[in-house]
Amino acid sequence: MYINIVFYTLLKKTNYPVLTFIRMEFSNSITGLFGIRYPIIQAGMVWTSGWRLASAVSNAGGLGLIGSGSMYPEVLREHIRKCRAATSFPFGVNIPLMYPDIEKHMDIVMEEKIPIVFTSAGNPQTWTGILKEKGIKVVHVVSSSRFARKAADAGCDAVVAEGFEAGGHNGREETTTLVLIPAVADAVRIPVIAAGGIATGRQMFAAMVLGASGVQIGTRFVLSEEAGSHPDFKNYVLKAGEGDTMLTMKSLMPVRLLKNQFFKQVAAAEQAGASAENLKTLLGKGRAKKGMFEGNLDEGELEIGQVSALIRDILPAGGIIENLWSEFLKTWAEPLPCKLQKP
Ligand SMILES: Cc1cc2nc3c(=O)[nH]c(=O)nc-3n(C[C@H](O)[C@H](O)[C@H](O)COP(=O)(O)O)c2cc1C
Q: Which atom of ligand 1 is nearest the CA belonging to 121?
């Protein structure tokens, strides 16, 4: 990590003295890779991260990602175009590789000349080479150092190491962020972006001490003004405390959910020995949309991370970035709380 000191000098022809401003510019492998000011990535999230959120984050100096997993191909194209009109800074697209219309999504990001693609939930071998041939930077989301090595071998530019605390779909092995980051940082030579349980500057600093060069943040940005999720969902998340989320549906596709009525139905079915096929039937179609986008808090699937227990406000995305960065710098200047400091 480097802090470059940049001097700005204003020369006036009048009697004013020469004014010099000093600004600290941070740079590391992640800010350099994406051409951004802060190593903060707003996660791609179904039913949440459209062009409004992604452009607000990019305008504030982070990297905004459009979450394509809940979009039909032409809807994705519309979001990309609106995002481009709303920001002149870099932004990217998150593409879950299990998406049924994956070819169409990939065609669109290539046609629209998207410079950065984050892939998840699938084999990075399949698309990385094709995207890289078009000059696109590719980052893959992993939940273990074994998968991180696979992503590096496939030619990815960086990996997101996403721990057990994270909202949304998650690794089966349940490795926590605190264990996963150093393991992945030791396993690969490409930059590591930490995800899962990060919503404050202190947590961001801790992740970077563990070996990450940047952070991917989901849950904190769900509670932003620009997030596209339903206001009732956001307000419900605001009330979440410790223990109110749990990883569920492990035999189908593990996902961290708030414990609402639908979650309890799934838990009861699992306890009664439901098979993956039974769970698929119970899940049906459109559960995530129903919960997060339409605000049906009883019957919908409510994806959110453990860190929701620490968040008590809905802020503009730019304010979230400012708070994260100022707390990060403060912690960097004084990393230990008073009680741990030497007398
Ligand atoms: C509502 C929600 C939807 C998500 N959807 C996606 C998705 O479409 N694709 C993906 O790769 N990850 C998805 N995730 C995971 C995030 O990209 C991110 O890695 C995770 O939220 C980080 O952990 P945190 O929630 O503790 O910040 C989602 C997370 C949430 C909370």
A: 11
